[in-house]
Sulfate ABC transporter ATP-binding protein
Amino acid sequence: MGVDLRDITCLFGRTPAVRDISLVVPTGEFLALVGPSGAGKTTLLRIIAGLQPGYTGHLTIGTRDVTQVPARDRNIGFVFQNYALFRHMTVADNVAFGLQVRPRARRPDRHAIAARVTELLELVQVGALAKRYPAQLSGGQRQRVALARALATEPELLLLDEPFGALDPLVRKEIRGWLRGLHDRLGLTSILVTHDQEEALEVADRIAVLRDGRLEQVGSPHDLEDAPATPFVHQFLGETVTFTAIRDHGRLRLDGAWAHVATTLPGDSDAGGGSVLLSLRPYEIGLSACAAGENGAHVVAVQRAGAFTRYRLAPTTDDQADTLEILVPAILPPLLSGARCRLDLSRARLFGTAARQATTLGMAATVPA
Ligand SMILES: Nc1ncnc2c1ncn2[C@@H]1O[C@H](COP(=O)(O)OP(=O)(O)OP(=O)(O)O)[C@@H](O)[C@H]1O
């Protein structure tokens, strides 16, 4: 069941928690909602769930305008981090609960409920734990049971708010891969709120980045990495190294402390002036030995970091304030501390001050540098 949000705004007092968000989540998609704390992720999820009154705009789930439809009639499954299981009920009773509280006309009989519970517990791989109480389960098992409970009423839309937040990283990694498989097998539409960018990049078809209640960008992990709409999106999804450059008749030149360092820069499709932000992942910067007479960056420190070598570089021998750290695959011949080198920044995304457009080298390569 797809979701269509149109011009959704939600105020708490006079403070907007969600501002004018329009977003379509097609049937079958796995969407991750990410953003800093307070960005409005939970509020948006609660609006879709029907748990958040007082918003404006239009919300369609499937083909139904549900703006005025209460939560219990939306046929949605929820799993929240703190959505504790009922402690006094067994695992099986917890999962059966959603079916048992249905009005008599829509409630399956006792045998059908028992069969459904068995099927769901098998599905989430906790079939042997049906008679246990929540206190007798591990965190990962509890979240699987919470998921089985959410799926009991056969929702077509699954909303997950930090469902794995309390789990240790290894269990978390395993359970999210498993959740993605379940989503595909059951043909669900899922929306996952997460603080964990890696989790979002790993499981989601598309990621919606929220900031201050606004939708900053929505796209596939690939889109967001290759063509982030704003520096914020690029920085939010991973570590970055940034430089400022000046636009000068279709060419770029670095500004500030790095201006005189030998550098290969990306092409620029904008022939105007002004300054540009160059943003790269630390492992996207290339290092090579300087040509004779070139003014290279200074290698201040070299340290092996797993599959990478971590270099600390400075623009001059006595500038310690502007150093930057980059990662280079450790299989490349190492440069020694004290060496001088040319920087290859050609993989940078460019963010113009006016247009806020991202350009990758691939997109800009048709324009002579
Ligand atoms: N019931 C409420 N009353 C007043 N303000 C609220 C309420 N719920 C949320 N807010 C505010 O709305 C904004 C968005 O909150 P929300 O919980 O949606 O953010 P979030 O992105 O989910 O944050 P987190 O990642 O920390 O959970 C925040 O500024 C928050 O303080």
Remarks:
- Residues 239-364 form one domain.
- Residues 12, 17, 35, 37-43, 195 surround adenosine-5'-triphosphate (CB under 6 Å).
- The radius of gyration is 26 Å.
